[in-house]
Amino acid sequence: MLRVPLSLARASTPLTSLSSRRLLSTKPPKTLFLLNYKYVPDILTARAPFREGHLALAEQMRKDGKLLYAGATGEVGEGPDSAMFVMTGREFIDEFVASDPYVESGVCVEGQSIREWTVAVHDL
C-alpha cells in the first residue's frame, strides 16, 4: 500500500477542483472505421505489380476526405504482415476494397476485418 505523508496529502489539490479541460477532451467522440488487411506471407514480392494502383487509390480517397491514414503493419523487425486503413465512413471501406488492385488481383490479401473505432481524444 502506498502511503502519502500527511503534509503532502493536505497540500494536494483535490481532483474535483482541477479544470475539466485538463481532464476531459473538449471535443465530442469521433467515430471512425478501421479496415485491416491480412497480407499473404510474400507480400513484398506479390504486391509489386499492383502497388502503384493501390497507392493511387489510397491517395485519391485521402484527397476526397474518405481516408485519414493508411500503412503496413507487422511485428517489430519482421516486416509487414498486414495493413491498417483509417476511414471516415463505413461505406468508404466497401468502396476502397471493391476498387483496390491488391484485392482484385487475388494475390496480395488473404483476409480482412472491419472495426468501428470511437475516438475519445482527438484533434479531428
Structure notes:
This protein has 6 helices and 4 strands, in the order ααβααββααβ. With 124 residues, it is of the alpha+beta class. The longest helix has 13 residues, at 51-63. The protein is globular. Helices cover 34% and strands 27% of the residues.
Rounded average pLDDT: 86
How is the main sheet built?
4 strands, antiparallel
Count the helices. How many? 6
Could you tell me the CATH topology label of the domain at 41-124.
Alpha-Beta Plaits
Give the assembly state of these chains: single chain
Q: Note the run of SSEs as H and E.
A: HHEHHEEHHE
Radius of gyration: 22 Å
CATH class of the domain at 41-124: Alpha Beta
Which regions have little confidence, pLDDT < 50, spanning 5+ residues? 15-23
How much β-strand is present in the residues? 25-35%
Please specify the SSE layout and strand pairing.
Layout: H1 6-11, H2 20-23, E1 30-39, H3 43-46, H4 51-63, E2 67-73, E3 82-87, H5 90-99, H6 101-105, E4 109-119
Antiparallel strand pairs: 1-3, 1-4, 2-3
